[in-house]
Design goal:
two-stranded antiparallel ribbon; single chain; eleven-stranded mixed beta sheet; globular; isomerase; alpha+beta; Pseudouridine synthase; about 25% helix; about 20% strand
Length: about 375
């Protein structure tokens, strides 16, 4: 390639011969094309912009050093709030859990103790996290109970259910509670937040339950409804069918305490000892379901219902964060019948913070807070 050099003085230019012109022409025609011009570069960063960037980086570094997290979005704050309310006691030292149970104790006498069970803590050991049964010896020491006194949980609650948990202090109390429970003499009332409004607003449901085997990649068992009546082929009237031999009797009394914008606060009173019947009824019979329906608490691969957009908005969540929503089922009240030697025992348990927050977000009102008619 021939490089032409511009002379600084015009009078130094030499006349071009024919051979030189031929060489120049051949060079120009055979030379590779010049590269396309590069796009114009962005304007250089101004000093004021650079100063702002440095200040921002320094501020973030100071926050990290001091342990202050960057400003979170409203969604991140809401998810963090739910985790704080529901995961505080799931993996703590046994002494910490025992101290919390002792501090929040609801009732005690010489025969029984009623605890305020927190969310996410199992009553019995299922192979994960701290359970209440494991810390009962520590709790007994904190209460200065006798050496031969052994606390035993009765009428246990599911891991995701909060509220009144009954403990017996001696074997005689255990036998008495078993007798009362078998004859349906212990009254228990639960409060649940549902999506949908039960129709009618008050009534009694009597549908047996049966445990069914669910095949598939994740083999498990699940409680389901086993109705004793079916709709006729004509669509008019019902016919009684033979009850399944393995079906368990399940009767639940319910009433709507408050409803607003498609959500309800429902009181459930199981009249039989069948577990999880009120959860199944909420989904299958009352035409509504729990904010997080945990029908088979033994399974860790639960399916979550798709909540309506308006409900998610009120709860401050998005579809991608639905798994952070907790089961809203609370054992509100327990009543043990009196005897000749002691009066009736009636214990009410305050609502957990995440439950009251959900009520506030959904504009649901406690019965005692409603304005008189």
């Amino acid at each position: 390639m021939i490089v032409l050099r511009r002379q600084t003085r015009i009078n130094n230019l030499q006349p071009m011969t024919s051979d030189s012109a031929h060489v120049l022409w051949r060079t120009l025609t055979t030379a590779p094309p010049l590269p396309s011009p590069e796009p114009e570069e962005k304007a250089p960063l101004r000093a004021i912009d650079l100063a702002k960037k440095i200040r921002q980086e320094k501020r973030e570094e100071e926050r990290t050093t001091k342990g202050i997290k960057p400003t979170a979005t409203p969604l991140q704050k809401r998810v963090s709030e739910l985790k704080q309310f529901t995961q505080q006691l799931q993996n703590v030292h046994p002494n910490v859990l025992a101290k919390h149970l002792h501090k929040t104790m609801l009732f005690q006498n010489r025969d029984v103790i009623v605890l305020n069970k927190p969310y996410g803590v199992s009553v019995k050991d299922h192979g994960g996290g701290t359970c209440i049964t494991a810390v009962l010896p520590i709790l007994a020491k904190m209460m200065d109970l006798k050496v031969d006194s052994e606390l035993q949980p009765c009428l246990g609650l599911e891991k995701e259910v909060t509220g009144t948990l009954l403990l017996a202090r001696n074997q005689e109390a255990v036998d008495n509670i078993v007798y009362l429970h078998r004859h349906n003499q212990i009254q228990r009332k639960y409060w649940a937040i549902t999506v949908g409004v039960p129709v009618p607003s008050e009534g009694v449901i009597d549908i047996p339950l049966i445990e069914r085997e669910i095949a598939g990649t994740q083999h498990h068992f699940k409680m389901g409804l086993s109705p004793m009546f079916r709709l006729n082929e004509t669509g008019e009237g019902v016919s009684r069918i033979r009850a399944h031999r393995q079906a368990e009797s399940a009767v639940t009394k319910y009433r709507v305490l408050d409803s607003r914008a498609g959500c309800s606060l429902v009181e459930l009173e199981p009249l039989t000892g069948t577990r999880s019947c009120w959860l199944l009824y909420c989904h299958g019979q009352l035409s509504c379901f729990e904010v997080w329906d945990c029908i088979t608490s033994r399974c860790s691969f639960l399916k979550y219902y798709k909540l309506p957009e308006n409900v998610l908005g009120k709860l401050g969540l998005e579809k991608s964060k639905t798994r952070n929503l907790t089961l809203h089922l609370h054992a509100r009240q327990m009543v043990l019948p009196g005897t000749t030697s002691q009066p009736e025992i009636r214990v009410s348990c305050p609502m957990p913070k995440y439950f009251t927050k959900a009520l506030q977000r959904l504009n649901l009102i406690f019965p005692d807070e409603k304005e008189p008619n």
